[in-house]
């Protein structure tokens, strides 16, 4: 396939970015989207130009690094797929593809398509831990957990922190991400010790980072590559209200 790429180029955080048009030829439909970008960068290097910066790591749909806005959609046109798992067979010969970074005040652009998502790390650091007793490892079946609850906690834990929910939301809200992290522990007995302080601290950090408010449009869940459910936002709201009702923190 021969494709026209309209790529966001921005040399650093302070610079004014712009869309730059490139052409790539002989792209195999079996290539992943990132492999196609690798081809583009090889062409740019051969031409003595600066390659396009983009985030990637595992390229197996696990790490959540490949955060790209493709033709106006988080991770591209295929539902439930990360950018690294998106194959070029989803496009046609002669297509024009617009590629941009995540758009959110809390995700500043480092360079080109690479954004700083450390705000997510700080939210997790604000409350994403559980108290554990040191010493011998407890038996894995010591605390019985109903399968339904275990399954729901596991589904929340599948969040890879890619930020697609933020990019898809008109308010750049991080509620789906935060709710998945809160639900993961709130559903399990191991998370009970810090249950109230965890949700308070994580929501406070989310607001501090500058993410927008949730208006329950559902675009976050629709674009989530691992299918995190809106149910988790309901769990987060319930946990937060319960924590605030008995909290000593009046802020």
Summarize the structure.
This is Succinate dehydrogenase/fumarate reductase iron-sulfur subunit. The strands form 2 sheets. A 5-stranded mixed β-sheet has the order 2-1-5-3-4. The protein has a two-stranded antiparallel ribbon with strand order 6-7.
Q: How would you portray this structure in words?
A:
35% of the residues lie in helices and 11% in strands. By secondary structure, it is of the alpha+beta class. The strands form two sheets. A five-stranded mixed beta sheet has the order 2-1-5-3-4. A two-stranded antiparallel sheet has the order 6-7. Helix 2 runs antiparallel to helix 6 and helix 3 packs antiparallel against helix 5. The protein has eight helices and seven strands, in the order E-E-H-E-E-E-E-E-H-H-H-H-H-H-H. Belongs to the succinate dehydrogenase/fumarate reductase iron-sulfur protein family. This is Succinate dehydrogenase/fumarate reductase iron-sulfur subunit. Pfam families: Fer2_3, Fer4_8.
Keywords for this entry:
two-stranded antiparallel ribbon, elongated, alpha+beta, 7 strands, 251 residues, 8 helices
Order of helices and strands: EEHEEEEEHHHHHHH
State the total count of DSSP E strands. Answer: 7
Average pLDDT metric: 93
Distance between the termini: 57 Å
Q: Kindly provide the radius of gyration, computed on alpha-carbon positions and rounded to a whole number of angstroms.
A: 20 Å
The rough form would be described as elongated
What spatial order of strands do you see in the largest sheet?
Answer: 2-1-5-3-4
* Helix content, binned percent: 25-40%
Largest sheet: 5 strands, mixed
Strand content: 5-15%
Low-confidence stretches: none
């Amino acid at each position: 396939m021969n494709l026209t790429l309209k790529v966001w180029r921005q040399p650093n955080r302070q610079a004014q970015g712009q869309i730059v048009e490139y052409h790539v030829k002989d792209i195999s439909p079996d290539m992943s989207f990132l492999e196609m970008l690798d081809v583009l960068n090889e062409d740019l290097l051969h031409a003595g130009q600066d390659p396009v910066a983009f985030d990637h790591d595992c390229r197996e749909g696990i790490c959540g690094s490949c955060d790209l806005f493709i033709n106006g959609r988080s991770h591209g046109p295929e539902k439930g797929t990360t950018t690294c798992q998106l194959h070029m067979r989803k496009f046609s010969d002669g297509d024009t593809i617009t590629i941009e970074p995540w758009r959110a005040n809390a995700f500043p652009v480092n360079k080109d398509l690479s954004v700083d998502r450390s705000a997510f790390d700080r939210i997790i650091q604000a409350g994403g831990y559980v108290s554990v007793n040191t010493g011998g490892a407890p038996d894995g079946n010591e605390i019985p957990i109903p399968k339904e609850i275990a399954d729901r906690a596991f589904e929340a834990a599948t969040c890879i922190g890619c930020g697609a929910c933020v990019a898809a939301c008109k308010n750049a809200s991080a509620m789906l991400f935060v709710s998945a992290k809160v639900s993961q522990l709130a559903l399990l007995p191991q998370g009970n010790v810090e249950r109230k302080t965890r949700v308070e601290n994580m929501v406070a950090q989310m607001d501090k980072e500058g993410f927008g408010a949730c208006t329950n449009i559902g675009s976050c869940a629709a674009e989530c590559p691992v299918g995190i459910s809106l149910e988790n936002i309901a769990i987060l709201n319930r946990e937060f209200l319960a924590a605030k009702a008995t909290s000593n923190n009046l802020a």
